[in-house]
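thread: overnight batch results

M.L. [08:02]
morning all. the overnight job finished for the chain we discussed friday. pasting input first so we're all looking at the same thing
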Amino acid sequence: MTTDLSWSIFQAWNKAIENREERGISARNRIWASELGGAYIDRYLKMTGVEPSNPFDSRALRKFEAGNMMEWVVGLVLKRAGIFIDAQEWVEYQYPNLLSVSGKLDFLAGVKPDCEKAKTEISDLGLPAVFGSATSAIIDYLRGKFPDGMKTIVLETKSCSNYMFEKYLKTGADERHKMQAFHYLMAKDLDEAHVVYISKDDLRMLEFGVFKTPEVEAVYKKDIETMSDFYYKKIQPPKEKEIIVDDKTGNFTANFKVGYSNYLKMLYGHENQGDFDDKFRAKVSKWNRVLKRVKEEKKMTELNTDTLNEIKAEGFDIGTPKQEAL
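M.L. [08:03]
and the structure it wrote out:
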């Protein structure tokens, strides 16, 4: 009689990742820093304790854990480079008469690196070659440029797909992430933070500075004022538009605040994000084709005119074409 000793770890791995413990929904009178810039209606429902109609699925939970692993690697590099100060600190800031904002910053880094000690520790860790060489390069760079030490800064790390990485490369850091990083500056009374993006596809990294300026604070404070007004007056915010104009490109786009909403079915009637994408992907593409024709002052076909009327019926004004419909 033979015993089958074959084994596999995939089921245990998947189960462990998908069993990620989520913070439950309960009424609260504060804003999470990660919510800044998000849909007001979703935030209001969460703050008033309304259970989501679309909780995070197993794929989303796995993506969160993948992000945590990338963050762990960044923390390891900071520690072995000798510039790590602190991580995962809960910090809070509140303007008078407004809701407080609370969040957990990713990293504080700075000080004067102990480069030789750091290199020795790196060699003892048995890191994959790419991390070992990258960390050594970072140490050499810091030692050469900042021999007397560095200022303390906040690092807010975000892992992302290659698609989003390319978008950030062209348009800069997401306004939500800038506000989140700015919150940590207010709470820690520091003047500089960096939003760091890491592509999960090819490990490329982007880094954008966020500074304590009146312009950035105005956006941060306005968000808190608006959310506080809805909350204290007990007024449910309006729903988001399903199609919006991208501020940076000027093109129509499906509103990700709707697609990723935890209340997608409750508020908008879409079963899940896939259904939302299927419905609006083709529509947005059609609208952008006509928008391009308008910008290029091309003649409008009958179908183009129908699309223009559809766009206007949904509250958008993209101007009147200079040439008559064929």
